[in-house]
Amino acid sequence: MSAEQLAGLSDLFVVAAVLLYVFAMVGFAIELAFGRARPDRIAGRPSDGVAESADQQVTVKEPVAVGAGAGSAGDVVTAAGPLVASGGGPVDPSEPGTGTAMAGKVALGLAWLGWAANLAAIVSRGLAVERWPWGNMYEFVVAISFAAVTAFLFTQLRHSVRFLGPFVMVTAALGLGLAVKVFYTSAGPVVPALDSYWIAIHVTAAIIASGLLTLAGVAGILYLVRGDGMSRLPSRDDLERVAHRAIVFAFPVWTFAVIAGALWADRAWGRYWGWDPKEIWSFITWVAYAAYLHARVTAGWRGRAATIVQLLAFGCLLFNLIGVNVFISGLHSYADV
Amino acid sequence: MSVQELEKEQAPKHVQLGLTGWLRWAWRTLTSMKTALILLFLLALGSVPGSLVPQRGVDPDKVALLYQQNPTLAEWYDRFQLFEVFSSTWYAAVYLLLFTSLIGCIIPRTATYLRELRRKPPAAPKNLSRLPHFASFESGLTASEAAWRLRKRRFRVVTGDGWVSAEKGYLRETGNLLFHIALLGILFSVGFGSLYGYRGNVLVVEGDGFANTVAAYDRFIPGNQVSAESLEPFSFQLSDLKVAYQLTGEKRGQALDYTARLKVNDHPGSPARDYDLKVNSPLEVDGTQLYLIGNGYAPVFKITDGKGQVAYEGPVPCLIEDKATMTSGCVVKVPDAQPSQLGFLLRFLPTSVPLTDGTYASAFPADVNPQVEILGAFSGDLGVNSGKPQSVYTLAEPEVLRKLKRLFMGSNTPKPLAVGQSVDLPDGLGKLEFTGVKKWITLQTSYDPGRMPALVAAGTAVIAIMLSLLIRRRRVFVRVKEGGTVDVGGLTRTEGNVAGFHEEFAEIVKVLSAGDKDVR
Ligand code: HEM
């Protein structure tokens, strides 16, 4: 296949991914809309956990896990303490009707198909241009949408987070749509400064972190949107936990991405840190997420305040990704927008 | 007693804190988590103007432009040091406070941590079923056997009468402390580098050379502790610069590769070696880095004056006006010309093509059909010897320019010159000949003794933050009751990242409950 054909194929895959994400979103939304409403906190469960009781909140996700795990060793476990007692949990938003559960399952399948199309778009683009396919804004946004969906689907493999489905799907579809409509750049080579193996290291890390942080951002917004009391949305504790998990993984990756960027700058521009606008905003984003991690362990800041800090940090991330490329010129102005 | 007197009496006495009391209070406030949080916010917030207001160190031209366009605003910016945010007093105040707070945080925590390291896990609670994780099974397991199996899983273990208490995950706190210490390391490395390092920029034309001395630089930014003698005495000659461009497709004209071929002498007298300097692959000479950061054209001119003497001959570096086509603007000053000085404003077109309206433009960035367009030629006193600082990229100040005599104007400007062509100036004032095309490169040298320590500290920070965030501190207790019932309880000691512990707990229960032979 020629490079042009591959590039054309990649464009088609992006469109396919957008459609599949939209369909998946509808399925997830049906499941959520007709599922059971839940109280803000499950009775008997402590609120914003004190250190010692925190794991209780996670274990309820899979109330029978301990029994199941030990079952293979000969069914010797007889009690699971408070684990079962506090039951309920965020687990499955669709316990009541099988129809809604079906919608959720179909949606999940569609999401995986969309994910595959998104991946195919990235790979064929990479083959078409014979380099890492994140050399400009368009490719970067396509890759971040992919990373966000990957973070969601892979989390879903181990913990039920289907409640995030509609929101992750709409975010990814919007991201891809934005990439196609606003940032589209036809396949081609990059400028010499970008022609380095560092793009594989630095930008890949940034993409992975951004994908995870997007997941956290979605959970954070839901946290604020969700009122007290009954709601079809999962409890705030669950939302905050998903966000925290994602950030805990993303923060070291982001730290690494910033440092790899500094190493690259040291190769390309003759200094490892020069307060270029992109560097400034990466730093601001990093400090803001560090502030979130601190806020979570500071008395009086847990819960809502920490979530707001998290969303501010997410805003910094988005501004760095889009705002800096569009509004501010600097050494990083390769974005081709 | 009046009511007022009564109130006075009952009002709390103003507590005399005394100096030490105040100091203690200040220190405690400074090192509290809330203060750290606020200082982190301030650090983030304080960085924002650094990206919105042009910075002197990054973009001095934009700062100058702002002074021209809006002097009042520029002065206000300057008053708040907004043109150099990252070296401003207020920014330094924020990060110094933050790092003081950090030190105040690290020291007591390290002390606690060292004590914790030596302390044994606490005795097992009486009733394990109250713990967040609990399991119970019948088996012949003894406490010492349980302790052994837990030890094998790298738990720190204490045993008592029929109970075992085990703890694991101390690396979490190690990671956290190390991370914060590494941040200090980064700060110190950066500070050290900016005191003892330097940066310099220089423009070199093909065929010319450069020797690393302060005087040879166009711009030199030394650290406070750098002396002129400390510069590494290397030198080089620029043989040529090769630029590859995309020839077809939508990205036609985009640069693909720059290669500057150098002959480098690492020390005076040492044999020359060849080096291909490229973007992303700097030349290193004994810790000093040399980077290729820009390039452009330097057309070569030969200018003969009114007396028939060659008043100037050589390349003239031109400033790029349009990056996509490398259309460049050139200024040629000839103060040695007789009887009067000459000056030229020229435009260099690397691939010149005529347009339908009779003008010319460049169609491609490579020098396929290089031509020079004369925009203006002047004679008279250029003011070069006035003692005022002059830029090589502007012909003269507007007031000087107005007094010059215009030799070519508007419609009587000659057609663009190709290589080898020349034009006679009116009134027998001389001749301008376009004899060839060279390229120039801009280089940056930098010497930063802090970069390796900074790298080590940063690498440590990444690894440490992973330990800190991904490891959980957890405890497992075992009680062997009479009749062979074994209770196992578990908990994690850190909030948040506890997911996965119940799998681990189940695994531990499995190992403990397994028969004698089945221990992995
Ligand atoms: C230079 C600025 C600082 C940065 C970038 C920073 C960053 C971080 C990060 C990313 C974490 C998360 C690690 C974790 O949760 O285990 C953390 C934890 C922590 N930081 Fe900082 N920190 C800074 C300054 C401080 C200061 C000044 C203090 C003391 C007041 C402090 C005290 C702590 C404590 C106690 C934790 C542990 C929280 C926990 O147990 O989860 N940090 N810091």
From TrEMBL, chain A:
Q: Name one GO cellular component term.
A: plasma membrane
Q: Does the keyword Transcription apply?
A: no
Subcellular locations according to the entry: Membrane
For the biological process aspect of GO, one term held by this record is: cytochrome complex assembly
Q: Does the keyword Membrane apply?
A: yes
Any one Gene Ontology MF annotation carried by this entry is: heme binding
Q: Where are the transmembrane segments?
A: 12-34, 106-128, 140-157, 164-184, 196-225, 246-265, 280-299, 311-335
Topology in the lipid bilayer: Multi-pass membrane protein
Q: Where is the Cytochrome c assembly protein domain?
A: 134-332
- Per UniProt, which keywords does this protein have? Cytochrome c-type biogenesis, Membrane, Transmembrane, Transmembrane helix
Q: What is this protein called?
A: Cytochrome c-type biogenesis protein CcsB
TrEMBL record, chain B:
Q: Which UniProt keywords apply?
A: Cytochrome c-type biogenesis, Membrane, Transmembrane, Transmembrane helix
- What InterPro entries does the database record attribute to this sequence? Cyt_c_bgen_Ccs1/CcsB/ResB, ResB-like_domain
What cellular component GO annotations does this protein have?
membrane
Primary location recorded for the protein, binned into one broad class = membrane
Where in the cell? Membrane
What's its membrane topology? Multi-pass membrane protein
Transmembrane domains' residue ranges: 36-53, 90-111, 177-198, 452-471
Biological process (GO), any one: cytochrome complex assembly
Which part of the chain is the ResB-like domain?
A: 33-505
Name of protein: Cytochrome c biogenesis protein
User: What is the organism of origin for this protein?
Assistant: Nonomuraea jiangxiensis
Query: What broad taxonomic lineage does this protein's source fall under?
Result: Bacteria, Bacillati, Actinomycetota, Actinomycetes, Streptosporangiales
